Amino acid sequence: MGMASMSSSNGESLKLCVFDLRRGQNEGQELDKILFFYPPDVTFSTQLAVIGLSEGLITFTRLFSPEAACEVIEAERHSHVFYEAEPDIWMVMVVEKNKEIEAIWRVDALQKVLKEVHSLFVMFHGSVRSLLDKEPSGGLIRSHLYPFITDYLNDLSIGKKLQLPSFRETLKERATVQMLTLARDAALEVQSLVGVLDSCAGTLRCHSLILFHDLLVSTTLSPDETVDLFTYSVMRLTSNALSSGTSSWSYLRKGTSLSQTSSRSTSPQLLGSSDPLLPSRNGNDAGRVIRPLQHNKWSKGKDGFLVTDIWGKDVTPTIWLRQTQERVHLLAYQHKCLTLVLLVPTAAIVNGELDISFVKHQVIENASAKILKVEEKLSKGWGGENAYHVSGYRYLLVDNDMEVSRASPSGKVATLAKETLLAVNKLRETVDTEKSRTKEEKDMEICIRAKNNAWAIARLTRGKELYMALEKASDTLLDATDSVQSFSNRYCNGTFSMD
Length: 499
Known about the structure:
This protein has a five-stranded antiparallel sheet, sandwiched between helices. A five-stranded antiparallel sheet has the order 10-9-15-14-13, sandwiched between helices. Strands 17-16-20-19-18 form a five-stranded antiparallel sheet, sandwiched between helices. It has helices at 44-64, 107-125, 128-134, 139-155, 184-198, 223-237, 239-244, 268-271, 346-350, 356-381, 410-413, 418-438, 477-491; strands spanning 3-7, 14-20, 34-38, 72-74, 78-86, 89-96, 157-158, 161-165, 207-212, 215-219, 298-300, 306-308, 318-321, 326-335, 338-345, 394-399, 404-407, 444-449, 455-461, 464-470. The two termini are 40 Å apart.
């Protein structure tokens, strides 16, 4: 299905670990550094071997590049993908190489899987280091990491196999949001609705996120926080996610096996207790570990607000905003395909300045008419899942500064030949390498001719990137670049034009 399959019952196919370089430095204490390991049922000697090798590679590469941590090591049989999530907190994915054509991936795409799971974890639980500081034994952080990452990996599974991003996903970009283009009259209505939502907590300003289907309509958050909340909303909150009972990401499928592979099979010696799902004193409910990525835990209430018992019975969900360093209540309201996420500062509730039921009443009382109007206007202008298809083109647009992307619909990309997709994948690898080497933004254009005579073209300028596949075999390089120029002029305001 466009993803590289990795057997979850075979420890050789994929290993994923989280460890702390500051821990376990003394003989006999090596296990202390292990914070998470997948698969969880492999022996300690295997876990220590993987983490020991990773630690050695990190230490060795730092000798030559102290400021730039190692990102990937390509061995004969495995790819080792590294991500320093926090200072001295490392996430490493070890992927077995095999001869299957589907098992061709970009390192940057695998890194973004690690980045995404860490960002989501921090949004719900705070940083890994803060939990280690709170309980230095490591039991608290492990009791959160094991179920959280397991639930995340469950979204990447089909049956007993993990589906990692392969070359077929090369015209998609993780860690970005996909936005809905608004007509002027619709934009004015949305702006008016946002103003009402901002004031639903009285004098305190509430942040908000509005989605239509799985596309972002409006946000008052920073780009990083928008990406995190958008990602979670598309996974669990939107009308598509609720109706399917699983993630509505087109390239993900709900799995059945990983949810059974819980951290109960991991030794109590690592967890610091007999069971990671026992009380962990994480703030919301002293008797439970919060598992926000569990499936089928959200539903729509009679008043239009989404409800869940993940945080406890009648407990309002909370998340952590990194930029403002504050915890906020998460309220989600849904009308047909329109989903509103409202963030209310928890400090106001604790201090008695606000009541959640009051905020909900304000939304229903003051925003209902505007919500109906916005949904009606967006539905009338909605072009369906192929709304952003451009005939003759298969493309991906990325704005790195705004963390926004737009791409050809998955169904249209699926019509491309394997040779074309492999060429685009190679093109993106070349761009990734060049960006990593220069460590600075620069304009570039790269063209690759595929074995089937299709063209794969990349243009980068001022933080924006355009990737395109053109399969008209008779096209010369001049024809292909003219096509890119026409696309840029018509759909990108000339951003990628070479004039």
